[in-house]
Amino acid sequence: MSAGDLIASSVSGADYGYALMWALVLSLLARYVFVAAIAKYVLCNNNSSNSIMEGFARIWRPLPFIIGLCAFALGFGYATYIIKGAGTAFYNLIGRPGDSEWGVFYSAAALVAVTLLLLFTRRQYATFEFVARAAAVILLGSFGAVVLIQGFDPAEFVQGLTFQVPESTGGFESLVIVAALIGGVGGSTTNLMYNYFLQDKGWLTPKHRKIQLIDLAVGMLVILVINLAIWVTAAETSVAGSAIDDANALAGLLGSTIGLAGEILFWLGLFFITFTTFPAYSYGQTKLLMDGVVNTFRPAGDAASQVAGEDFEKKASFRWLQGGFLLVLPLIFSLPVMPSFVELTILVNALAAIAGPIIIIAIIVLTTSSKFVLRQHVNRWWMTAALIVVGGIGVWASYQAIVGIF
């Protein structure tokens, strides 16, 4: 669960009601297929490696570096809105003291400073993981309670699951919203970070495939339920049909239904999600870059397993890249003159969809040939067909993002 999920679902529901809900379901199905295929290579490859970047290098040596660089660039984009979102939430939780225009920037700067300190402590990511789980519980409880209190329209809900693209209204083009859903909820380069989750879990062999698929399915189900609760809340509130381009308007989605407690719950949920997301994203996207660099430029004699086992995060260059480019520099976008948190979220996630097709094509190549994975784990025809469909969705979303934004 990320800030992209929260914002994309909220804006979609508020601006278009239930009409684009099919895109949410489609994006999560695409994410499941996409991530499951990534995990298949990591667990079932025939090269004794646990790195997806090593697989990309087997297709074309420069590919890991290109994808890693793309991931790092998108990581900067993600950081611009996630850090601003964390600052906005924290500023509202402490009562909006002082100058409201600069309060968000000062709050964001303080949170980045805390994060930089945590980067040099032990088990820092275990702490972030615990807080992230708490955020998911808060969001599910708060938005779920609102849905139960205000109810929803079953007929409109079902109709929203049918393919339809309404005329643009509110602050964003409808097709840009769809692209943002696919980029933010469906994911792009962020899906590649699942590789490191498997490494941390110790799931690195074919015998872990079953538990990995179950774990992934449960995670997708939780994300779906939370996003649907957020979407229904946005669609059913009095602001539905109006432009949502500010975080305060999103807080009003809950406040208009259950009062001040609703707004506080929203800010708590947003704070926990963003404050745990930008450290994790900065870590993951930096690791993708360094993993890509090493797999592209490694000496010919180095074994893939040796490269995959490198502790990139222990290198000074890793800390400088993560802290300087993905934590400190993005603070510029928290200045008052910059676009709002909501606007940055939609635009960055729409752009994220552009990187998806390249990665999906590479994953299809890796999982459909016994040249790369163990013969018994080569994709069956329907698995490949599903990946091709996901790739087609990614190409369509990329086109819509480019046309809608530029």
Automatic annotation (TrEMBL):
Entry keywords, A to Z: Membrane, Transmembrane, Transmembrane helix
Protein name: Nramp family divalent metal transporter
CC per GO annotation: membrane
Intracellular or extracellular location(s): Membrane
Major location category of this protein: membrane
Taxonomy of the source species: Bacteria, Bacillati, Actinomycetota, Actinomycetes, Pseudonocardiales
GO molecular function: metal ion transmembrane transporter activity
Residue stretches spanning the membrane: 20-43, 63-83, 103-121, 130-152, 172-192, 213-234, 254-281, 320-338, 344-369, 381-402
Pfam families noted in UniProt: Nramp
Bilayer topology term: Multi-pass membrane protein
